[in-house]
């Protein structure tokens, strides 16, 4: 009986000892691992990945970035992966998995991917990280480039054009949500209109969503009924409702964002404040896989082929003749303003306060 | 003034159709949180149907069939699988939002928004400014009165109310509450399809992912605000449409002085206040106690 109890005690002791030993070993291994392996240098596959936080199929930024990456991949012959990351909780694990898989370049979209990049970039020094539409990192990380876009400069030109072409002198702006960059776009338009004359006014409104064309339609209708005859859109899928409102009467003009929108309003989409995310990604990935990679922040403005203000060729052909004639007449002034901005002789305020 | 009335009618009509669907469900004893999902199915099907067939009737028909099928699925999950109606309704909303996105991706590849070549028939220039209103706006009062008569002035309406409030009593006089709920949900499916079609094809001709933007939930709030009465709920839906239109007007007038986020939130603030007042007037605590439960005794 006694020997049976002793055996049981010995068994219990041995289990306890085993658990203690295991815990100790795990602790030692973990500590050693974190001390001895602060970085996990990978990147040998040539893989370029795009992690996009908005769904593909938007006829806009994401589709253009995927298309540009495919084009560059075919030209240079490297493998690509595109991953839609919807839930912010999954961003770090997606980035880590890609870096662990040896991705040479990981590009991510918009502000929400900043933290995962900051966390993982030091662990994977051989992987280059690109953040499309992000703020500068302080301090600069040697394997990270962040890219921002001076879209407000295009909006300034749109405001200038509108103030010169509008018959009523009343200009509208409809944004998706009141965010600092969009507020800056609206303020740039106001500054441009004010530079033309005190009688020019810009009225801004926000739909509260980038996916609500019905609300966009409603706001645009109220604006047009108030005498506004030119609206700058800045609201993704909500834009389509605004363009439809413009199509409901002659003489209504819209400035949109993508050439895909020309066909939605051949007689109303007069211009674009174009932002070519695809071209931007193409440029940055090309630099990252070549010898020209330079870490830090890149502010992309006019004259880079990424941000611009352009007249719609469809509208020039099919738009109201009097407005088209007026547009052609004032266009040299817009070109001059663009040149002045690029040269730095015309400064556009970046004001995010409403 | 006419412009404001037109704006309110345009934004209020989709909401009212869906609200009436919520009223029917509520009378049958189900708090219907799947209205958002049904509405977006209706909006999507109408546009895709028109694009594929070139016929507005086919578009509406597809929307109605899909919404009725989805409603029958909701009924099956609640009634036969004994799922909580609130959770099942939210599941239907998820199904509608995800399913429509999947359908568009599957059919058109990389197109997030789909444009139809034409919209619902409109009144036309003979009606002046009101000519921009669609046929479903004109028919909306007919549906409101029809639902009111059906629920308040017919034997079927009494049987439906009994099925929702006292299923045991209903069963004792030969009424099958489960079947009544099925009929109510399917009728609601038809109304949601019409509401969705008005949203995507009434003043627009487009479907975009997530374009219902919470309108189904506002319709649900209107049902509570209106105390389950078709006329009261319609009034509540109109109230939300008026507040929404005033919110836009306020942005255009006072956007320089008042934060736009506050003005955009006005309809939702009004919704919360409205539901709170409604709860106070109608004994909200009592209603809340049975919220989410399917009476079946």
From TrEMBL, chain A:
Compartments (UniProt record): Cell membrane
Cellular component aspect of the GO annotation: plasma membrane
Keywords: Cell membrane, Lipoprotein, Membrane, Signal
Topological relation to the membrane, as annotated: Lipid-anchor
All copies of domain ABC transporter substrate-binding protein PnrA-like, residue ranges: 49-325
Family note: Belongs to the BMP lipoprotein family.
Name under which the protein is recorded: Basic membrane protein A
TrEMBL record, chain B:
Pfam short name (any one): BPD_transp_2
Transmembrane segments: 6-25, 30-50, 56-78, 85-108, 128-150, 182-200, 262-279
UniProt keyword annotation of Transferase present: no
Gene Ontology MF term list: transmembrane transporter activity
Cell compartments where the protein resides: Cell membrane
Lipoprotein recorded as keyword: no
Any one Gene Ontology cellular component term annotated for this protein: plasma membrane
Principal place of residence: membrane
Protein name: Simple sugar transport system permease protein
Upper taxonomic lineage: Bacteria, Pseudomonadati, Pseudomonadota, Alphaproteobacteria, Hyphomicrobiales
């Amino acid at each position: 009986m006694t020997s049976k109890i002793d055996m049981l005690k010995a068994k219990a002791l041995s289990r306890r000892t085993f658990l203690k030993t295991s815990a100790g070993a795990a602790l030692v291994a973990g500590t050693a691992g974190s001390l001895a392996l602060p970085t996990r240098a990978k990147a040998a596959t040539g893989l370029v990945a795009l992690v996009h936080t908005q769904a593909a199929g938007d006829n806009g930024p994401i589709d253009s970035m995927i298309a540009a990456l495919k084009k560059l991949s075919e030209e240079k012959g490297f493998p690509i992966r595109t991953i839609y990351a919807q839930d912010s909780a999954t961003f770090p694990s997606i980035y880590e998995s890609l870096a662990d898989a040896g991705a040479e370049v990981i590009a991510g979209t918009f502000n929400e991917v900043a933290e995962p990049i900051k966390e993982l970039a030091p662990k994977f020094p051989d992987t280059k990280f690109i953040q499309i539409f992000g703020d500068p990192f302080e301090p600069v990380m040697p394997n990270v480039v962040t890219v921002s876009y001076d879209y407000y400069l295009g909006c300034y030109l749109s405001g200038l054009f509108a103030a010169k072409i509008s018959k009523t002198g009343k200009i509208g702006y409809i944004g998706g949500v009141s965010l600092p960059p969009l507020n800056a776009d609206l303020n740039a338009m106001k500054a441009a209109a004010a530079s033309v004359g005190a009688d020019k006014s810009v009225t801004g409104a926000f739909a509260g969503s980038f996916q609500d064309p019905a609300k966009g339609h409603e706001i645009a209708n109220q604006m047009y009924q108030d005498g506004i005859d030119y609206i700058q859109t800045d609201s993704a899928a909500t834009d389509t409702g605004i363009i439809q409102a413009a199509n409901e009467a002659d003489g209504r003009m819209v400035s949109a964002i993508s050439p895909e929108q020309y066909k939605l309003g051949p007689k109303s989409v007069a211009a674009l404040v174009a932002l070519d995310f695809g071209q931007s990604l193409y440029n940055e990935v090309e630099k990252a896989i070549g010898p020209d990679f330079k870490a830090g922040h890149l502010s992309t403005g006019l004259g880079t082929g990424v941000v611009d203000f352009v007249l719609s060729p469809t509208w020039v052909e099919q738009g109201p003749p009097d407005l088209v004639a007026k547009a052609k007449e004032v266009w040299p002034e817009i070109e001059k303003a663009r040149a002045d901005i690029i040269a730095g002789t015309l400064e556009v305020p970046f004001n995010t306060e409403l | 003034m006419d412009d404001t009335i037109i704006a309110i009618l345009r934004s209020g009509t989709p909401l009212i159709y869906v609200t009436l669907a919520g009223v029917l469900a509520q009378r049958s004893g189900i708090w219907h949180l799947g209205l958002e999902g049904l509405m977006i199915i209706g909006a999507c099907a109408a546009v895709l149907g028109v694009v594929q067939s070139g016929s507005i009737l086919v578009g509406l028909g597809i929307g109605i069939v899909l919404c009725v099928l989805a409603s029958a699925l909701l009924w099956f999950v609640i009634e036969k699988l004994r799922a909580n109606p609130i959770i099942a309704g939210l599941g239907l909303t998820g199904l509608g939002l995800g399913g429509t996105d999947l359908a568009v991706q599957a059919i058109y590849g990389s197109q997030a928004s789909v444009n139809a070549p034409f919209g619902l028939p409109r009144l036309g220039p003979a009606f002046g400014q009101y000519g921009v209103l669609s046929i479903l706006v004109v028919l909306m009062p007919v549906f409101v009165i029809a639902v009111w008569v059906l629920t308040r002035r017919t034997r079927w309406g009494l049987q439906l109310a009994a099925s929702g409030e006292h299923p045991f009593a209903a069963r004792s006089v030969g009424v099958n509450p489960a079947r009544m709920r099925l009929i109510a949900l399917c009728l609601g499916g038809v109304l949601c399809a019409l509401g969705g079609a008005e949203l995507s094809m009434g003043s627009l001709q487009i479907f975009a992912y997530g374009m219902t933007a919470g309108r189904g939930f506002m319709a649900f709030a209107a049902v509570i605000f209106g105390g389950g009465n078709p006329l009261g709920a319609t009034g509540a839906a109109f109230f939300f449409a008026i507040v929404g239109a005033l919110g836009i007007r306020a942005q255009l007038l006072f956007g320089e002085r008042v934060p736009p986020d506050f003005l955009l939130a006005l309809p939702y603030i009004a919704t919360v206040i409205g539901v709170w007042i409604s709860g106070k007037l109608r004994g909200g605590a009592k209603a809340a106690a049975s919220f989410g439960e399917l009476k079946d005794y």
